[in-house]
Amino acid sequence: MLLFFGGSLYMSLRIRKRTENADGYMTGGGRIGFGISAASMTATWIWAASMYASATSGYTYGISGPIHYGLWGALMILLIYPFGRRIRRVAPKAHTIAEVMFARHGRSSQLMLAGSNVLGSIISLTSNLIAGGALISMLSPFTFGQGILAIGAGVLLYTLWSGFRASVLTDFAQVCAMLGAVIVIIPVIFFAAGGPSLFETGASNLTPQQADFFSSDAFFNQGAPYIAAVLAYAIGNQTIAQRLFAVREDLIKKTFVTATFGYGATIIGIGMLGVIALYAGITPVGGDVNNLIPQMAATYLSPLLLCVFFVMIIGSLSSTADADLTALSSIVMADIYGQNVAGKKRANPRTMVLIGRITMIVAMVAGLFFAGSQLNILDLLVFVGALWGALVFPVIASFYWNRVTNLAFSVSVVVALAAFLPVRFEWVELAGPVAVVSDVLSTIGIGVVLGLMAFGFFGKRVALIVATVATLASAPFTIGFLHTYPVLSGSLIAYAVSTIVCVGLTLPSRKADFDFDLIKQRTGDFDSVDTDELNTELLQLTETEKRLSAENERN
């Protein structure tokens, strides 16, 4: 741990500036290259919680569990680039999606996105600390509490200095270490547990659904909710948006396509540890599935490979934890202080950096506090994804449809959340007419999700066809059935209700069409130092050109 976090701190200190630039602290100035960006996106999304959750899915649902988890998670990254190119075109120098929503609509839509991301990043940070604490308590004499404290301090120490620039630079080193460890560790554990013969000797440990590659349990409980959450994470998550605003605009597609393959292969591979544990008949220590991965490592790996495994997990959780810290700091810097407290024209860049660092400290303390509860990681991820699901259609529509109003945006999100919560947490009994209404809305939600995916790649006409066909084709099978899966139903209802309400309030609106060029004027750099220096250089060049021109005329 000292070697890992010490090395990360050394890298951070090497790039530290005497006077930190506020925009660089949030997005690296929007000039990050392909290699660093792709590695950072891959490392950020290969977080310890996703590794643990993929293994949990494999242990719970069998061999199809990790495939459903990793495949749809990879699709989420792929879906970023078509929408991402539009977002960067509209707001080339923004720092957060919430900041763009402030320029597009106003304060209420901004605070909705900012608030959901504060909640999401703290939950993500908490999940990573839980994963690290479980690892350390399993493989060392330290307790769970001591483990999360050590990891929290290590991540905070190297991220605090240079913010986002430190995060992406250390991500590059961490993803190299992670991928190398995965290539070695998974085959070693597989053969140590019995190799190919394990699938014969351990088959009796599986239920028929777990043994079925096309398991309906795995699809409706794992795959389908993640398909529904794909767009939510792609559009609503600030850790992704931050990398979208940081990478050079011409490298967006290449960056996110590369990260798609890196994430999918790694997470599906890690999830197979859960499948191996299922076939081997292993029971998680203390009945806690969060202990499954470190338990497999402790059982089957030599001390040397345990060190390699430790680096893999610590690297994965650190890469996402520092991304959560930088996401939270950018939200507080840009959306709370920069837009709502000081105002964009009066915001002091040095004060912004100080606020960003204070935010990181407060966020880490909150994450350590919540990590003590040791919540189930899989449930946390599904819950946050569904929350962002209520924002997906209003956000996407706001970048393409110039008639969407602040009222339509805000009301649609609130109503969608009000419909989602009772279904997701089963506060109402899904029976009789309530079940029918739930199924109808969920079926519409299927059409919305698939239609939005098609819209990103193929445009509006194809999207409308796909949405209509998907809704009508699935209706005979889903109505009367889908309400038996409240997690999936809640997510789909959030999509459907937000879309219906947003469209319903937008169509009758008589307000003038919005000019998207205004977003470029209302967003941009907070720190004017670099701009002033550039303007001075341009002025000097202009004067030189005039002098040379005058001399040429005299000659």
Describe this structure in words.
The chain is mainly alpha-helical and 555 residues long. Helices cover 79% and strands 0% of the residues. The protein is built from 25 helices and no strands. This is Sodium:solute symporter family protein. It comes from Microbacterium commune. It is found in: Cell membrane. InterPro entries: Na/Glc_symporter_sf (IPR038377), Na/solute_symporter (IPR001734), Sodium:Solute_Symporter (IPR050277).
Spell out the blueprint of helices and strands:
Layout: H1 2-14, H2 22-27, H3 34-45, H4 48-61, H5 64-78, H6 80-90, H7 97-104, H8 107-139, H9 144-162, H10 164-192, H11 198-201, H12 208-211, H13 216-236, H14 238-246, H15 252-280, H16 292-300, H17 303-341, H18 349-371, H19 377-400, H20 406-424, H21 433-458, H22 460-478, H23 486-506, H24 517-522, H25 529-554
Helix pairs in contact: 1-9, 3-10, 3-14, 3-15, 3-17, 4-5, 4-15, 5-13, 5-15, 6-14, 6-15, 7-8, 8-9, 8-16, 8-17, 8-18, 8-19, 9-10, 9-17, 9-18, 10-15, 10-17, 13-19, 13-23, 17-18, 19-20, 19-23, 20-23, 21-22, 21-23
InterPro entries: Na/Glc_symporter_sf (IPR038377), Na/solute_symporter (IPR001734), Sodium:Solute_Symporter (IPR050277)
Transmembrane segments: 32-55, 67-84, 111-136, 142-160, 172-193, 213-235, 256-280, 300-321, 354-371, 377-400, 407-425, 431-455, 462-482, 488-507
Protein name: Sodium:solute symporter family protein
